[in-house]
């Protein structure tokens, strides 16, 4: 079926007195007379700050250099480098949170994943998320990296923000993500980002804590008098931790849980760990590895096993539900799994990110994975990944059903039917979409990871379950990625039905972002598979898809032939609704060719079928087209009734493009009657909506009509 075009709308009815402004999609400020600008809500994405020990010199460095930039009217950019576990992110968060009053435009945060197992995050994906956070509607996010970066700079030049780009790979990785105006950006990385000096970036290399400052951190972590009573032993302990805050906190957390254990005993244990390590698997840093090994061996057996299994998770975040799924074979309950996560959190092995979710520090994750590889058999590690995939498939399938309960799906693994608690109700479509959107990066990581396993079907089944998210929230980058991964897995596994589904669903994504040739190629490949396998219904559906691609390529007559075939074949093979959509597409081509009677007949037939099928949105689209056809035939009063009827339905479902089509036709009726103010208002609203959904050709046509109105006036 065609992909819905959805956007925002506004409506005024009845008598209106005084100044009135109608607007569709707006980037930037809105001024009304002498009023203050009306802005979309500011994003506040920074994770919580943690208490800082010392770092007074570093904070002064950042503060002074930012003050100079403010005086000169320049944005502020600084790159914080240093060893893993030295506290780069903690410093950045601690300072940026203090800037909130001076940067009311908001705070943006991205974990760029330079050391993530799934690889660095594509800057285009990060920009898409930033733009959405700044109030850009999903359908307005540009398709290319350059266009996204330009829009991002434009928005932030008018509303400066604080930005934290955490764990960056290189200066090139960061450059597209630098905001405009008087914004403040901090970048963290293991290596020095000297390449950012070209953008005016300041370099701040973070050294480990001095022994006295590390002892202060240890005392704060313990919360008792052991450091004050045994300063020499405390000094030896923090020296063994090399002054790295991560190591000090991990060792301190273990001591805090054992108030009767002396610091001297911990010094002896940590010294043995340091001596045991011939080489460090994590960045050559014996201090962090030794601290993690010591803390890990002090965990209860069930907590240690959860720690190992979480290390096999290919994504960045996890919650109680995932922990429960990982431990299900051992009969661990949801409450017990939550307690085990609390135990890991209390030992500083995991960090809470909000919304009842957790993550590893990247060094800790590598340690957890190393422990899993050493202590869990390969079969158990594979089984853990399968449980992770099953957990996500079950929840994604529930979300899919909440949004599109009647959508036919590919066959699913039995794991999809397992009971998992979900943060959305079975009938709450918006909450389900919000969950899919929040979990999307982790879902993509799982889809990629399972592709080459003994259970690759999770790759295409998860991609299929994600379908309802894509046409609604317009995540085109992920749309392309997940269907590409699903298609590759289906081909390698030889599942032809899955190949056809990935080609058609993925092709609709290509069509939506303007890659018409690629979309047509994918639809034709699906058609070949379905025809060869005797799937008459599936093949008939590709007629409609191929027609859409041809129409977008500027071949309307070839498209009309396919639409006519689809309209005849789809009902015969059991899908009358899709046949109605094909009739609607054929009606559009007839109308564009100025054949109003033919267009009206096809649109009327499509409307009747779609109403019968219980599809009010597409029935309203057909009514709009019927009204436009009757207007072209000279029946203005009938056209007005039809268009008004359709508009009432379309406004209720935020169908921006279709609302604009109805408004444009109603504007023509008002113009022909001499009601110029009404015509102008309708044209202007239609123009805003066309711009909002990137329909440049229609927007240009409406601008020309507005110019003609002004000239005539």
Strand composition percent: under 5%
Radius of gyration, CA atoms, in whole angstroms: 30 Å
Q: Strand sequence of the main sheet, in spatial order?
A: 2-3-4-1-5
Task: Identify low-pLDDT runs.
Answer: 1-38, 278-284
The average pLDDT score comes to: 90
Query: End-to-end span in angstroms?
Result: 43 Å
Give a written overview of the molecule.
With 713 residues, the chain is mostly helical. It is 61% helix and 5% strand. The chain has helices spanning 56-72, 88-98, 123-133, 145-158, 171-174, 211-222, 226-229, 231-240, 245-256, 263-276, 286-297, 301-310, 320-327, 334-346, 362-375, 378-403, 429-450, 457-465, 469-473, 476-493, 496-512, 516-532, 536-552, 556-572, 576-592, 596-612, 616-632, 636-651, 656-672, 676-692, 696-712; strands at residues 76-81, 107-111, 162-166, 184-189, 202-205, 318-319, 351-354, 357-359. The radius of gyration is 30 Å and the shape is globular. It starts with 55 loop residues before the first helix and ends with a helix. Residues 1-38 and 278-284 have low confidence and may be disordered.
């Amino acid at each position: 079926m065609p992909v819905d075009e959805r956007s925002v709308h506004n409506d005024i009815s009845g008598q209106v007195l005084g100044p009135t402004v109608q607007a569709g999609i707006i980037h930037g400020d809105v001024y009304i007379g002498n009023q203050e600008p009306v802005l979309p809500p500011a994003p506040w994405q920074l994770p919580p700050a943690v208490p800082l020990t010392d770092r007074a010199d570093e904070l002064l460095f950042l503060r002074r250099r930012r003050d100079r930039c403010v005086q000169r009217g320049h944005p502020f950019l600084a790159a914080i480098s240093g060893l893993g576990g030295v506290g780069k992110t903690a410093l950045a968060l601690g300072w940026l949170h203090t800037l909130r009053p001076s940067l009311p435009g908001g705070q943006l945060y991205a974990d760029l994943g330079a050391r993530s197992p799934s690889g660095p995050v594509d800057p285009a994906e990060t920009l898409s998320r930033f733009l959405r956070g700044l109030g850009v509607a999903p359908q307005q996010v540009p398709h290319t990296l350059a266009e996204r970066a330009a829009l991002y700079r434009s928005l932030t030049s008018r509303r400066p923000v604080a930005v934290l780009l955490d764990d960056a790979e290189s200066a090139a990785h960061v450059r597209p993500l630098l905001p405009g105006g008087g914004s403040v950006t901090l970048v963290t990385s293991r290596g020095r980002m000297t390449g950012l000096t070209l953008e005016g970036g300041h370099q701040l290399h973070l050294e480990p804590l001095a022994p006295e400052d590390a002892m202060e951190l240890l005392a704060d972590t313990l919360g008792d008098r052991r450091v004050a009573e045994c300063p020499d032993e405390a000094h030896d302990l923090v020296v063994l931790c090399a002054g790295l805050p991560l190591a000090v906190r991990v060792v301190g957390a273990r001591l805090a849980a054992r108030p009767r254990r002396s610091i001297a005993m911990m010094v002896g244990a940590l010294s043995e760990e340091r001596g045991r390590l011939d080489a460090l698997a994590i960045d050559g840093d014996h201090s962090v590895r030794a601290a993690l090994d010591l803390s890990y061996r002090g965990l209860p057996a069930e907590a240690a096993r959860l720690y190992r299994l979480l290390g096999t998770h290919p994504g960045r975040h996890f919650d109680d539900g995932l922990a429960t799924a990982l431990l299900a074979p051992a009969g661990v309950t949801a409450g017990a799994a939550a307690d085990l996560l609390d135990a890991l959190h209390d030992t500083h092995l995991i960090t809470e990110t909000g919304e009842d979710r957790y993550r590893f520090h990247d060094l800790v994750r590598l340690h957890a994975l190393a422990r899993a590889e050493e202590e869990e058999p390969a079969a158990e590690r594979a089984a853990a990944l399968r449980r992770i995939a099953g957990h996500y498939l079950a929840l994604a399938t529930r979300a899919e059903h909440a949004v599109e309960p009647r959508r036919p799906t590919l066959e699913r693994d039995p794991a999809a039917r397992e009971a998992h608690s979900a943060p959305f109700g079975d009938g709450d479509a918006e909450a389900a979409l919000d969950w899919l959107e929040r979990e999307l990066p982790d879902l993509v990581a799982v889809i990629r990871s399972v592709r080459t396993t003994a259970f690759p079907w999770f790759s295409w089944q998860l991609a299929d379950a994600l379908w309802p998210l894509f046409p609604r929230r317009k995540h085109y980058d992920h749309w392309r990625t997940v269907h590409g991964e699903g298609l590759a897995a289906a081909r390698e596994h030889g599942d032809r039905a899955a190949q056809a589904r990935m080609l058609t669903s993925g092709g609709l994504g290509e069509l939506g972002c303007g890659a018409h040739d690629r979309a047509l190629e994918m639809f034709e490949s699906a058609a070949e598979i379905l025809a060869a396998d005797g799937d008459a219904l599936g093949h008939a559906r590709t007629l409609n898809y191929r027609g859409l691609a041809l129409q977008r390529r500027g071949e309307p007559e070839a498209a009309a032939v396919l639409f006519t075939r689809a309209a005849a074949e789809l009902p015969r093979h059991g899908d009358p609704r899709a046949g109605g959509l094909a009739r609607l597409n054929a009606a559009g081509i007839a109308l564009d060719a100025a054949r109003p009677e033919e267009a009206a007949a096809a649109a009327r037939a499509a409307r009747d079928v779609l109403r019968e099928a219980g599809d009010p949105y597409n029935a309203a689209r057909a009514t709009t087209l019927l009204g436009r056809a009757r207007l072209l035939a000279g029946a203005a009063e009938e056209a007005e009734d039809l268009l008004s009827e359709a508009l009432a339905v379309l406004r209720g479902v935020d169908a921006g493009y279709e609302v604009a089509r109805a408004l444009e036709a109603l504007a023509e009726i008002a113009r022909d009657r001499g009601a110029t103010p009404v015509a102008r208002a309708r044209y202007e609203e239609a123009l805003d909506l066309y711009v909002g959904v990137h329909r440049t050709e229609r927007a240009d046509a409406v601008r020309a009509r507005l110019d003609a109105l002004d000239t005539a006036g």
